Each structure stands twice: as structure tokens, then as C-alpha cells.
Amino acid sequence: MKIGDKVSVVDEDLSGMITSVNGNIVVFKDEYGFTYQYPKEKLVPKNADLYENIRVVKKAEPQKVISKKHQKNHMVLDLHFENLVKNPSDYDSFERLFIQKAKLTEVLDFCRKHYLKRLEIVHGIGDGTLQRMVMDVLESQRDLDFYNKEILHHQSGAVMIEFH
């Protein structure tokens, strides 16, 4: 290091031009005219020519590994009663709701067991009884978030669930 060389301070945002060298102590001025004293081992030369002949090698960006299990679309559970049993007219309204609730809890357990991340529950609009039952079941569960598919929840016939 000699007078006139540009240097930077290690571990600080500080650089300037050397004005004097006294043994191990180097004195330099920054761009604003302030003077600083540092030992030689705290300084590095700031010389663009040092990097002139170094070839830059660009490496390929590593790809993030995503499991195949999470690449597929989310599971959809349609709770319309005619999709759950063969003869829907054989059941009264209480039995219907009980079967729909059992199917919902069964599918929630299946999703947890198989580490699925998302589930869409289609309950339809109707009079809101099934929707209320679905919301009650979801509120009683833990480690999941749910939200309505539409902005206005009373117009939505589906709920999206995300498991933690």
C-alpha cells in the first residue's frame, strides 16, 4: 500500500485514498475530506484492475424440489346429498344432515392422514342449514384455515380449507 492507492475498510462502509503510511498505520481521506487511521490488516485495496482477468462463471439456478403429492390440484368434496347415497328420497332431513356431517369429518381425517394441503367443500347455497353445519364442523377443528370462495359468503356455495 502506497500514497495515492484507493482502499476500503473491512467490515465497514468506508473507503478513500491513502495520504500517508506510518509503519503499520495507514491514513486515508474519504470522498468528503475526512481523515481516518486504520492498521494495514483492516484495509483492502480498492482496485478494479485486480478483477480484470478473472472469468465470471454463471452457474445454473438450483431448482426447488416440489413433491409430486403437492403438485396436483386440491381435493373437492361435494356434499350435495344425491352425490352421497343411491336413493336420496329414502332419508329424512335429519338423517341427510347426519350423513353429510359424517362424510365431512371422514374426508377431513383422510386429508390429514394423507398430508393434503387444500380441500374444497361444495355445500351449495340453499337455505343455509348445510352451510351452517359445515361452518360449525370447521370451527371445531384445529390446524386449518378456511375461507369462502366468493367475496360475499352468503352467495358462495363452497368453502376452501388449507391444512397446516
UniProtKB/TrEMBL annotation:
Coiled coil: none annotated. It comes from the Bacteria. Pfam families: Smr. Residues 108-164 form the Smr domain. InterPro entries: Smr_dom, Smr_dom_sf. This is Smr/MutS family protein.
